[in-house]
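Rotation project, supervised by the postdoc (A.L.). Task for the rotation student: set up a whole-complex structure prediction and record inputs and outputs verbatim in this book. Inputs entered:
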Amino acid sequence: MKKHNFSAGPCILPEEVLKKASDSIINFNQDNLSLIEISHRSKPFVDVMDKAQKLVRELLNIPNGYSVLFLQGGASLEFLMVPLNLLKEKGKSAYLNTGTWAKKAIAEAENFGHVEVLGDSSEKNYNYIPKGYTITNDFDYFHCTSNNTIYGTQIKDFPSCPTLMVCDMSSDIFSRKIDVSQFDLIYAGAQKNMGPAGTTLVIVKDEILGKTGRNIPTMLDYNTHISKGSMFNTPPVFSIYVSMLTMQWLKDNGGIDWVERINQQKANLLYHEIDRNPLFEGTANKEDRSNMNVTFLINDKSKEDKFNKICEEAGINGLKGHRSVGGYRASMYNALPLESVQVLVGLMQKLANN
Amino acid sequence: MKKHNFSAGPCILPEEVLKKASDSIINFNQDNLSLIEISHRSKPFVDVMDKAQKLVRELLNIPNGYSVLFLQGGASLEFLMVPLNLLKEKGKSAYLNTGTWAKKAIAEAENFGHVEVLGDSSEKNYNYIPKGYTITNDFDYFHCTSNNTIYGTQIKDFPSCPTLMVCDMSSDIFSRKIDVSQFDLIYAGAQKNMGPAGTTLVIVKDEILGKTGRNIPTMLDYNTHISKGSMFNTPPVFSIYVSMLTMQWLKDNGGIDWVERINQQKANLLYHEIDRNPLFEGTANKEDRSNMNVTFLINDKSKEDKFNKICEEAGINGLKGHRSVGGYRASMYNALPLESVQVLVGLMQKLANN
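Outputs recorded:
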């Protein structure tokens, strides 16, 4: 039975991508060698890297002056690369504290200098996105997290920002239109809408780099990777290849316009049911609700076991909420079909009617 | 036609490993989900991580008191994590300069403190391993590279070391018996004898950590990863899984004892031909010759084109030498069958006889 995969990440990928990825492990490029046993300097893999970079540029409509990198270490390594590359000696940075990942980013930046937290929703268990703060130009940069997987919130409108704007888009990149020119640095672990775990996408405006006066270790310097086209050392070949396939799938289906529309349909369907069905309750502030991760509780605890059981019987995977919110979390990344959400909504209705 | 894959890395992996890896992308663990679309916190993947760590311990016979980690960033990130975790403020470290990678490791360490190079073979294009140096205990650690892929040299006997001994074993780990208790920290990019690119094996003696007085960023602190069992953040799931499969293959075939014997046979066969055949000449000092990467030149340049042609016709892949040595490099990692070396030697004989 095919599963309905609501996993929060690593998460569902398109079936045709999985098929091609699987084939490439046996015979890549009709060359009788596996993708994972050829040199990353060989033409077939250099072509993959080029194509992956081009697809990022195309899908996100990236203006000139930005570099596109595929690195390693996940968003967690970016948490320290950002201040190391952008925070001046004795400079200060501004952060928005919207959840677990934002908090970790703040903690790392504090190793390098003064951090001011301009907005913080921790007192309400991060169930909303802080607004009404002002960013001033005496900060070296402002950092925010576009989507908070654990708490099910998402920034709908990015603030106007008189200094550099840095955004961790790990969990919603490629899910909706963004105006890249608003940002100076975007990073995202691959393992949501882009591909398998193991690579990190970085989109950085070239002119902002090299201005801090810091001595940056080679591997942590964005300029190292820009100058070598993400091939300073052996890249995570498989993760980049499957990311390339996933982006190609997105492009072939109609790109960001298409997927944003589908993602909105999925979100509308599930949030509508949560709001309509007296058995369920959403945890996030309505105006900040994430289209990627829908967090909700069952009001009648006595029905929890039954709901878990019928979900399991229907092949639903990964619906358990994060321990810090409890309840349920339906992660509805790009590759999750509308049909899977329909199945879930059907079960919610069934539970209420029994 | 099946290729004879002499690629220097990423390199050949066992056929049965590739088959299982390919299957896991479609349906992992008979669970109707792909390996790369499940949570790294799910039991099936936690089991993979546990098994991978156990196999490293078993194959290398690791004593108590060491941790086994699967990180990201390759050896290049280790070049800076090593001094960051082991070099005291105002301390000094000792390095052996045996080639390109050693030189890069030295350059990174110099960002953090004083480095003394105890031996250096650069004046002879790194064609030998320096010997006769003395390591004193006023160094915080001594660092060496066990095998030099580009120059075809390998340390056969590790020095006695009165301080911590750190070794980059990226290109020969799991290829021969080592006494782990001689070392305090071993690291290795996966993409030679362990698995696909994308993860880095670290074996570290727990008691050496946390003694420098430095403030270490979370992701660069070995203790972070030890305390979270390599799951501080999303690990490179696929690379770790395929590494686990490769180690299981090695164990099933007889472990390090078995592979060391085969690797010695392969090396004897090829070096014997290089020494016997007047058309060819080895580039590395005989006593330091690597069993992993055999570097050699054609004496009669007019025969080069023909040799390249017959190699290509025979399905030989990845034989071109690195530009800094020229000629040829036959990388004979664990998964390369003896038969592939026989094919190569046959062609060398054919070239001489025509």
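Student's summary: Chain A has two domains: 15-253, 255-353.
Supervisor addendum: Residues 15-253 of chain A form a domain with the Aspartate Aminotransferase; domain 2 fold (CATH 3.40.640.10).
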